[in-house]
Amino acid sequence: MNKKNIKAYGKENLDNPLHEINIVRRTLLPNDIEMNILYCGICHSDLHQIKNDFGMTSYPIVPGHEIIGKVIRIGTDVNNFKIGDIAAVGCIVDSCGKCEYCEHDLEQFCDEGVTFSFNSPDKHLGGMTFGGFSEKYVCDEKYVLHVPKNIDDLAAAAPLLCAGITVYSPLKHWKVGPDKKIGIIGIGGLGHIAIKIAKAMGSYITVFTTSLSKMEDAKRLGADEAVLSTDLEQLNKYLRSLDFILDTVSAKHDVNSYLNLLKHDGSLVLVGLPPEPLEIGAFNVVIGRRSFSGSNIGGIAETQEMLDFCAKHNITAEIELINIQEVNEAFEKLENGNVKYRFVVDMSSLEQSQKEI
Ligand code: NAP
Ligand code: ZN
């Protein structure tokens, strides 16, 4: 297969910082589009992966899966994109297309294994896929999203490609709406977009945060109430009051105190990926017939639906825009919870040399 060399930011082992490296992308297959990457968000999953938190990282790694770019080339059989379109790639860049999940637009659970935009076996080139901290992305048009024309701030839209769909999918599946009182745990990249989307869906939102500094902000973002979750007395005021809780916390935490905030038949849905197992006390679920569940990103059709929903409701992320040369510092800040609320990399900075920045 023909390939071409491009610039990227990645690392060859656990201990290295991310730095400029060369990677290859395939030349276009008939159904492929090639995009110049404009912006790429930094998700906590990128951090988990570069640190090998899940023991699944294959080095060299180039992270980045919240990608917005401009289409610069299209394959001979591409129907839905043209050169110059603003397009996006999220977590999923391939799936088998024929298993029961793919047939139901649930490619995220594909039986043969989803190909993720980075750190997944690359069916075409061998080795692993490389993510959005790079000049260009090549992808089958089936997995490429249209960015609605009325979204002006493309940098702030990039986080929708992972954070947005990861919270939209469970909020929709569990039928969050005007008649529901919901909780959101953790106001990070996912949590702050969840507040905005749940608000647009019309529900009454209580957020639970460990950060005093985010309590007022939560209300500005659309929450009706904000609770300092480290204060058990405050937490217990919400016992049996919520229909649904979305848990976006990235580290090990006690879910039992949150299960007790659910009404009977309520669900706590985990989207955060703490690397260690979480313990659940039997009585916290058997009493009140409560459910503890999880959700993983969303399929391609639902991701497009989410982008259209966000465009209609004027929803994008609150971001700190950085150059790629600042990415290691940004990961450090993300690890320390020091970001409001998503770092996005201006990928045009990759063209400039370190000295010019
Ligand atoms: P993030 O920006 O770092 O936000 C996580 C938030 O969790 C923090 O802002 C903090 O909120 C809270 N938190 C962190 N450590 C905590 C601790 N020890 N105890 C209690 N609360 C803590 O991360 P993100 O990008 O939103 O991602 C969140 C998680 O979702 C990550 O594990 C990521 O890998 C995962 N994820 C899953 C999917 C999926 O498909 N399931 C998709 C994308 C990401 P407060 O300051 O408000 O307390
Ligand atoms: Zn992500």
In short:
By secondary structure, the protein is α/β, with parallel strands linked by helices.
Largest sheet: 7 strands, mixed
Q: What order do the SSEs take from the amino end to the carboxyl end, as H and E?
A: EEEHEEEHEEEHHEHEHEHEHEHEHEHE
The overall average pLDDT, rounded, is: 96
Which class do the helix and strand fractions yield?
alpha/beta
Distance separating the two termini: 36 Å
Fraction in helix: 10-25%
Identify the bound ligands. Answer: NADP nicotinamide-adenine-dinucleotide phosphate, zinc ion
Per DSSP, the total helix count is: 11
The coarse silhouette is: globular
Estimated share of beta-strand residues = 25-35%
Q: What is the β-strand count?
A: 17
Low-pLDDT windows of residues: none
**Rg, Å, rounded:** 20 Å
Give an overview in words.
There is one protein chain. With 357 residues, the protein is an alpha/beta fold. 23% of the residues lie in helices and 27% in strands. The protein has eleven helices and 17 strands. Strands 3, 4, 5, 8, 9, 16 and 17 form a seven-stranded mixed sheet that branches. A six-stranded parallel sheet has the order 12-11-10-13-14-15, with helices on one face. It has a two-stranded antiparallel ribbon with strand order 1-2. Helix 4 (163-173) crosses helix 10. 45% of the residues are buried. Bound molecules: NADP nicotinamide-adenine-dinucleotide phosphate and zinc ion.
